[in-house]
Amino acid sequence: MLDHYKIHHQIYEQSLFLSRIYTHKGKPSIPLGDLLIIARISLYPGSVLFATIDKNDFSTLLFDRVGIATFTRQVRDRVGLRDVIEVVQFLKFNKQKFQKYLNELPK
């Protein structure tokens, strides 16, 4: 049986550390939801591959980019159908980067 309290506590604690790191690195406006996603991924370093089109909040600050893929899709706007190219990045959480930036934080 999973100890949900323990997982929630780890995610909460990790989110606070992540918030401090992102603020210290000049990105104080990262959304809470994204912090919680990163915190959850950080519990499984090296074993989770994360795919996202959000390159602003999920940058290489704490992740290693392991690949990029492009997809074309059609969207309908006022003029009609048009093609949109989406760029998806595949990321892995880097625990060494996290630890390095955590150690750099003011005490």
Describe the structure.
The chain is an alpha+beta fold and 107 residues long. It has one domain (4-104). Helices cover 39% and strands 28% of the residues. It contains 3 helices and 3 strands. A 3-stranded antiparallel sheet has the order 1-3-2. Strand 2 and strand 3 (81-93) form a beta hairpin. The longest helix is centred in the N-terminal third of the chain and has 21 residues, at 4-24. The chain starts with a helix and ends with a helix.
Write the H/E string, N to C.
HHEEEH
Radius of gyration: 17 Å
Question: Numbering strands along the chain, what is their spatial order in the largest sheet?
Answer: 1-3-2
Give the strand tally. 3
Look at the structure and give the mean pLDDT. 90
Low confidence ranges: none
Tell me roughly what share of residues is in helical segments.
25-40%
Query: What structural category characterises the helix and strand content?
Result: alpha+beta
Termini separation (Å)? Answer: 37 Å
User: Beta-strand percentage?
Assistant: 25-35%
DSSP summary: helix tally: 3
The largest β sheet comes out as: 3 strands, antiparallel
